[in-house]
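Long-time lurker. I teach an intro course on protein structure, and each term I like to show students one example going from raw sequence to a predicted 3D structure in token notation. This year I'd like something fresh instead of my usual example. Would anyone be willing to generate the tokens for the chain below so I can use it in lecture? Attribution to the forum is fine with me.
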Amino acid sequence: MKFLAPLAAIAGLALLTGLIGYFGFSSVLQALVSSRWGTVFVVLARAVALAGAGIGWWLVLMPSRPRTSVFIGLRYIRDAINTLIPFAVVGGDVVGARLLSHFGIAASSAVASVLVDIFLQVVCLTVLLLAGIGIVAELVGTARVTGAALAILVVAIPAVTGFFLTLNFGAFEPVVRRLVAFGEKHQWAVFDHVVDLGDRLQQIWRNHRNLLVSLGVHLVTVFFGATEVWVALYFMGHPVAPLAAIAIEALGQGSRAAAFVLPGGVGVQDGTLIAASALFGVPPEVALAMALIKRVPDLVLGIPSLLAWQTLEGRRVWSRHKP
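-- Reply from a regular --
Happy to contribute to a lecture. Here you go:
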């Protein structure tokens, strides 16, 4: 992975550059400029969506929890690491669990909450993808449903089922061993104390009400992500119906999840957004500009989040060595 991740990042950037060159730099730039305030609203929409995801994570650990703002802030950090740092996507989630343990949450509970939170997000992403495929089939015909979307769905449903069975019926010992090994490699002693992870997972699963509320919040958050597509295209003068925006977002997010070895699914997600937008009559250069606008929040929100992460790490090291 040490060598694969940078190579994948380079390949993704090359693909994105090729798309811009193919559709014309000037045409794409003109479409970008035409968005005006649209980019600002897209950033705001992403900020709201990440805050919602943080609240969904917070709900998993009710009633024993730190402040909601802690979960929201750490959710921003999780997303920034996963998007901007070219290593395995699990990196941000592992860091999020470790940082949460510094706010009075037991390490095993922190790890369990992240695992369940990831599962709920995967479930919601699968629902979004199903909705997107259904919308495409209804609005533009079943013949236009892409093979790639169906392939992602074929993989996603067994993956969700396997993830649930693994978490809910105790087949998580390999996960524990990997976490402990990861912590030892990075000298993160906090992961030496996750041996009771199974009990913590069961405590979370037994709290059905909190899980359902968290699932509902995550589901609303995932569908709210389609606001980015709708806003960007509206400000560029190519508005689409809300259902079309959901379908475009669903296919884009599905391809991003499938291309997990690429940081942020760069290149692959952008190409999928172009293809999905074309189903609803959006010109390719406009769709590519929209895809690039959706990358802006990755930087605007991600860079400060990475700085916040390093600040938290610095404070932890300072407090540990303080006389």
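Some talking points for your students: DSSP finds 15 helices and no strands in the chain. The chain has a mean pLDDT of 76.
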